[in-house]
């Protein structure tokens, strides 16, 4: 089943068709990427405005007008099929945001968390039928809208290619979709292609996950202060981060701090000056701050789960998980600085960083860290193996958690060098840092060093599990990096290929006793800091245009 729709080539036809199916409708221009020129129209004025823009932007002057199913659950299946007709689903993903927000702008969790087995199997069967019918050879992505309370569903779209979701599915499962699709294109079948992670199983095995993956988009509203923050079917994200943990709560907390947007928990302080009425009113706005807003509403206890679900159509399971994080927040604040072992252990299991716990208990980050070590609460690293540990993994691809056993095998035969990645793609920081990171790893390997990559961006080559000797899929913060340093004890670190994100970690790495290779931290600082650089130019008597930094009009 799919939603009622019609392709129109002028505004009049669009208005006429909409009058037969009723508002709201979704408008999707043909041949534009990321939903450009599209949107949701709730009345004729909006319809005409979006249609005119969409018809102008479409290379073929066509716009699809379709029944709006905003508010339904959005579920995606990443599927593989070979020329012999063997099919598997690599991964299924659930958008926390319901249909109506572009999947590139949604927080996504893999595998899906709120589907019953019947719903999961129904959509999986449908996805396999679709790719068989379309005779697809290779990878394919099928997006569904599922009614929240009945078994009614619609196919939103089928991408007979790799998409942004394919990169996420590849990194979430450790199943290299593009690599396998390339071999299928050459005529191999899934049961002939070896699984690159286990070396024992074949590509025809469906990956099984014994962990939870959370993806959060990196939206550029910190750069564009005046931009409209609302999220619709047109994509606004510049990049994304992914985190892996043993629980959804932990995955969400790790992903939030991976964004490098000065947020390290669900408490942002944005709503401190707002009344309860204003906060509740804000819930009707669909934007990138909604998850923090829900946390604030739960913190104040001013709306039930049902009410929040009714307005946002976000599943109550996710609302409950946010509530669990808010509860822990309250417990930490209420303990009066007396953190017992159980409370600290539980807070770390949910991935609350030391600096946040310190802030809420009036202690220093150092004190919290020392208390943790005293209680023996340290991060363990688990392996991504595509088969829920049924077979041993041959490729070291790790994530951290505070409730598991360490699975890192250590060999001190070679010297180790750690390369810090650049995190998500954002305005002013693109793929060039990834290119540099990967080439530096290759050069270090050629010289005989063991290489370790730390990064959290699923769209990059540096997070492919076969680039470095070891891959740590972790947030790029001092605490998260220190967990890796304590375990690996690298002989040196390279920060100059990770952009600002990595350079900011220089001082913390030096404090951990890690040698920084290449330009020293002081010299990087002297070149980057305008005042310090000015002093150098003064000293060397090098002329330059006069300038001065001001802070007020």
Outline the secondary-structure elements.
Layout: E1 5-8, H1 11-21, E2 25-29, E3 39-41, H2 44-57, E4 63-67, E5 73-81, E6 87-95, E7 108-110, H3 117-133, E8 138-146, E9 153-159, H4 164-173, H5 177-185, E10 212-218, E11 239-245, H6 248-258, H7 276-282, H8 290-300, H9 305-312, H10 316-334, H11 341-349, H12 354-361, H13 365-375, E12 380-383, E13 397-401, E14 416-420, H14 432-446, E15 450-455, E16 470-473, H15 478-488, E17 492-494, H16 499-503, H17 506-511, H18 521-528, H19 530-539
Parallel strand pairs: 13-16, 14-15, 14-17, 15-16
Antiparallel strand pairs: 1-4, 2-3, 2-4, 5-6, 5-8, 6-7, 7-10, 8-9, 10-11, 12-13
